[in-house]
Amino acid sequence: MSGACKGSIGIFDSGYGGLTILRQIRQYLPEYDYVYLGDNARAPYGPRSFEVIYSYTLQAVEALFNRGCRLVILACNTASAKALRTIQENDLPRWDDGRRVLGVIRPTVEAIGALTHTRHVGLLATPGTVGSGSYEMELRKLYGDIVLTSVACPMWVALVEYGEYDSPGADYFIQKRIETIMRKDPEVDTLILGCTHFPLLIEKIAKYTPTGVRLVPQGDYVAKSLARYLAKHEAMRNNCTKGGTCTYLTTENSETFAATAQIFLRKPLENVEKIEL
Ligand code: DGL
Q1: Has this prediction a pTM greater than 0.90?
Q2: What is the C-alpha to C-alpha distance for residues 140 and 68, in angstroms, rounded to an integer?
Q3: Residue 44 in contact with ligand 1 by CB distance below 6 A
Q4: Which of 18, 76, 85, 207 has CA 20 to 30 A from 45's CA?
Q5: Rounded percentage of the chain residues whose pLDDT exceeds 70
Q6: pLDDT, tens digit, for every residue of 11-24?
């Protein structure tokens, strides 16, 4: 499993959420080629066990590597929290040719220090991400003075995956979780949207968030961090092809994916292919 081929940058998520990261990355780095993979058939990952999330994520990363990607971004907090470290430590060495897998948690945490004034930060994420304690761990390394309060939002990914993100029913689930986190720590002034699906719900989230509390979607920080990474790593930069294209892969029906993804990307998609993992 080696070979110094060049390839597109792989972007992986359990479903549609990673499109919010892809959109920002393509804004910052439009010259590269991308392959987006959504494991829509098996989303949501959030409530699943460590073993299952790790095994699904590894399958996705290997599928992207087999398509020539040298660099894969886990545009999914749940996969970043539950699978990234194990893949980096146990699986990447098998490929042994300088391939890399990066996540979304570290770039988000790096940005938080400059955003909060009260040093009380809230995390809204999937049960998997909250249960993993990954945000606490990363925050402790960088900003020991920040107090983190986390609330799992088990329904929110499903609202996006099943096209209910805009429905009146979504309001109930969103309001409930925002009220819970603000009740748990009224000093919170910064709310991390620690799931890449959540920016797709941002209008409703903003509607129930108290004035003065800042919402932090991740796309911008992940994109800037990737730009810095590529600027620093010349070999990787040279191994990523530059044609400005994007191919989309889904484990579900390709027409459904194209129709839904185009709402989120605000433009029609070409090159959608269904694959098995
Ligand atoms: N977008 C994924 C995340 O950032 C959602 C995970 C899921 O499928 O539950 O966590």
Answers
A1: yes
A2: 36
A3: yes
A4: 207
A5: 98
A6: 999 999 999 999 99
